[in-house]
Amino acid sequence: MKITKLDIVEIFTMSCGFSGTIAVIVGASAYVSGLLGVGTIHLGKVLDDQRSTLRHMMLYGGISTGAGLFATGLAVGVARTVGERLADEPVFTDDEIAYFKKIKPCKECKYFHGVNYNSVDLICAIHPHGVDTDTCPDWESR
What's residue 69's pLDDT? Predict the structure, then answer.
């Protein structure tokens, strides 16, 4: 399965969209609660000593709602502009995917090295370039 840049953009935009929606819900709830509290103060002076807290709720609720709307708009903007440009461009080349598949069983072997020296991969001490089969005759657990 290839992971494309479009897949990454979709995950990013969904994250921004969900985060924005949650921020809008939380912010709007805080704002409405603060507004109702201030209204209660003006009507009955019941919560007069909580006026400062309620005003802070309104302030931060408004900020949170604005940030949520911004994040949601950002997600839509990224999806429209960047998503179309990166439609099918893969994140990894076929050679990189083949290399990852090749070294996957090697990572748990005690001979695994997996470091690149001047553009040459040294996979292990016994088989510097790896093996071409599904199993290695020299594989040993770490």
Answer: 92
CA distance 55 to 37: 9
Task: Show the low-confidence residues of the chain (pLDDT under 70).
Answer: 1, 44, 46-47, 87-89
Start-to-end Cα distance in the chain: 29
Give me the sign of the Cα torsion angle 18, 23, 29, 35: negative
DSSP secondary structure string, 5-73? Answer: HHHHHHHHHHHHHHHHHHHHHHHHHHHHHHHHHHHHHHHH-TTGGGHHHHHHHHHHHHHHHHHHHHHHH
**If we measure between CA atoms, which residue out of 68, 62, 58 comes closest to residue 22?**
68
The predicted pLDDT at position 46 comes to 64
What are the distances in angstroms from CA 100 to CA 26, 47, 117, 121, 123? Answer: 43, 63, 17, 12, 11
